[in-house]
Specification:
Layout: H1 2-68, H2 74-96, H3 102-144, H4 147-171, E1 176-184, E2 199-206, E3 215-224, E4 235-239, E5 242-246, E6 248-254, E7 259-266, E8 274-282, E9 285-294
Antiparallel strand pairs: 1-2, 2-7, 3-6, 3-8, 4-5, 8-9
Helix pairs in contact: 1-2, 1-3, 1-4, 2-3, 3-4
């Protein structure tokens, strides 16, 4: 009986240990699966951002084609060709860059902002030239009284105006410059350790844009932890046919001039060491980004 009792006890303990081991294995598998899903979501977001930049570079190159068809000034045509070649070269460079190469993506995003600004200046020049040409055509029509010729010219002007409107719509997208992320402690001072962080401060400037629509703009900031979870998520917004969580939202009155913006994200949880990423969104587009790293 004693031997049988010992065997029963040993078997019971072995079964208990197997049950505990099975529980921890299942829990570990679930955690690994969640981490894998989070990583895949971040990779998809980075790829969507890269694809959006590629589409913008391609659209800018096409807009130069449209503008060149409306002018005959050789000097201006040469400059437009140069800028179009530059946009195409940057597009080719972007296609060679991997979506997880954050440094190169950030550099090409800055280049994209420069290309967009140059495009805006040419839009204004071409628009001014078109207005001058139209004025001369109107004077010529009144002198020669050529009704049929005037009708054709007006039809052509309508088409050019529609093309120009499309170009202006692309150039009207907002840009955020000087994007910075700061961590503060409970005294409002810069936090040097993650355990001292009580809030994040996101600051940036919405660039001057004479072609953008003025009025209220809803600005979202999305701060990601090193695990790619959203810090203090308070809601979601639409981006590229999907919903993304945001850390804070603010309505800004935009007048077309450079507008400084500061947004605060309170933190009530323990944070881990690593790199925290900030993304700024407006009008369904990501307009700026930054990051902040902590060793402990």
């Amino acid at each position: 009986m004693k031997t049988t009792t010992k065997i029963i006890i040993i078997v019971a303990v072995a079964l208990a240990l197997l049950a505990v081991a099975a529980y921890f294995i299942v829990d570990l598998n679930n955690e690994l699966q969640k981490q894998k899903e989070d990583n895949e979501k971040y990779i998809q977001l980075a790829e969507m951002d890269k694809k959006e930049m590629e589409n913008e570079y391609a659209r800018f190159a096409m807009q130069y084609d449209e503008m060149k068809r409306t002018i005959k000034n050789d000097s201006l045509l040469q400059r437009l060709n140069e800028e179009q070649n530059r946009a195409n070269a940057l597009l080719a460079e972007l296609k060679r860059v991997k979506s997880n190469d954050a440094a190169e993506i950030a550099r090409l995003k800055k280049e994209l902002a420069t290309v967009r600004e140059v495009l805006r200046s040419y839009i204004l020049q071409v628009d001014s030239l078109n207005r001058l040409n139209q004025s001369l055509r109107d004077e010529n029509m009144m002198v020669k009284q050529q009704y049929n010729s005037a009708t054709n010219q007006i039809s052509t002007l309508t088409e050019e105006k529609q093309n120009l409107s499309k170009t202006v719509a692309i150039a009207a997208q907002l840009d955020a410059t000087g994007v910075a992320l700061q961590a503060q402690n409970k005294k409002g001072k810069q936090a040097k350790k993650t355990k001292d962080i009580t809030r994040f401060v996101a600051s940036f400037r919405i660039s001057r844009n004479v072609t953008a629509k003025t009025g209220e703009r809803r600005i979202y900031v999305r701060i990601l932890k090193p695990t790619n979870d959203v810090v203090s998520q308070s809601g979601t917004f639409s981006y590229e046919n999907t919903s993304l969580g945001y850390s804070a939202v603010k309505v800004v009155e935009y007048s077309g001039e450079e507008t400084p913006v500061t947004m605060y994200v309170n933190v009530s949880e323990m944070l881990s060491a690593g790199t925290y990423k900030l993304f700024v969104f407006a009008d369904g587009a990501m307009i700026g980004s930054s990051m902040l790293s902590f060793e402990k």
